[in-house]
Design brief:
Blueprint: E1 18-19, E2 26-28, H1 35-68, E3 90-93, E4 97-98, E5 109-111, E6 122-126, E7 131-139, E8 143-146, E9 158-160, E10 164-167, E11 172-175, E12 180-183
Antiparallel strand pairs: 1-2, 3-12, 4-9, 5-8, 6-7, 6-9, 7-8, 10-11
Length: 189
C-alpha cells in the first residue's frame, strides 16, 4: 500500500495586501502570486490525486485478495494481481481435455483424449448441464484420478484447469468462460 511518512506539499501562508484607504499606506504586504507558488499548488494537487489513485488501487487489490481467501484451495498465499494492467501476463491457454466416456457421481478415474494436467492441480469438469472443481490426485498416460465427482457428466465433457473470474459487482468469484490460463509470474516490489 502507498505510504507517506511526511507530507511532501510545501504550504504557503497567504496574506492579504491591505492598504489604508485614507492615506494610501500599506498596512500589510500581501503574499505575491508567482509562477513558483502556482506551480507548487499544481504539483500538490497532481500528487494528491496520484496518491489517491495508488491508494484506491491498493484497496481494490486487497479487497480482491480477501475475496479469494478460502476460495482457491491451491492458492497457498500466492496472489496474482490482475489489477496491475499487464494484460500480457495473463494469457488464455487453449489446452483442454475431453472425457472419453460418460461418468456418474462418485467416479474418481476419468479417461481423457490427452492429459495436460499434473497431480495436485484443481481442474474444472463441465458439460452443458453440470460443472464442478475437483483435485487431480494422480495422472496416467490417458487418465486422471480425481477426488470423487459430485455430479454425473456426459461423454465429451470438458476438463480444464480453471474457469474462475472475479465478479466485482457481486463481490465474489464466479464461473467464467471455460478454458485454462497460463500465468507469467513477476515479483511485486
Amino acid at each position: 500500500m502507498a505510504t507517506l511518512n511526511k507530507n511532501p506539499y510545501i504550504r504557503t501562508n497567504w496574506r492579504d495586501h491591505i492598504v489604508d484607504i485614507e492615506n494610501g499606506q500599506t498596512i500589510q504586504e500581501g503574499t505575491r502570486f508567482t509562477a513558483g507558488r502556482a506551480n507548487n499548488i499544481e504539483e500538490g494537487i497532481y500528487n494528491a490525486y496520484n496518491w489517491l489513485v495508488m491508494y484506491a488501487n491498493d484497496l481494490e487489490r486487497m479487497r480482491v485478495e480477501l475475496e479469494m481467501v478460502g476460495r482457491s484451495p491451491i492458492n497457498n498465499g500466492i496472489f496474482y494481481d490482475a489489477l496491475e494492467g499487464d494484460a500480457k501476463a495473463l494469457e488464455m491457454d487453449i489446452d483442454t481435455a475431453v472425457a472419453q466416456n460418460a461418468y456418474i457421481a462418485g467416479t474418481t478415474n476419468i479417461e481423457l483424449d490427452n492429459v495436460p494436467f499434473n497431480a495436485g492441480e484443481y481442474v474444472a469438469i463441465y458439460d452443458d448441464e453440470q460443472q464442478e472443481s475437483v483435485e487431480v490426485t494422480s495422472v496416467g498416460e490417458d487418465t486422471i484420478t480425481v477426488s470423487p465427482l459430485a455430479n454425473s457428466y456426459k461423454k465429451g465433457a470438458f476438463i480444464s484447469r480453471s474457469n474462475s473470474l472475479v465478479n466485482i459487482e457481486e463481490e465474489e468469484l464466479a464461473f467464467g468462460q471455460w478454458g485454462t490460463y497460463t500465468l507469467k509470474i513477476s515479483e511485486v516490489v
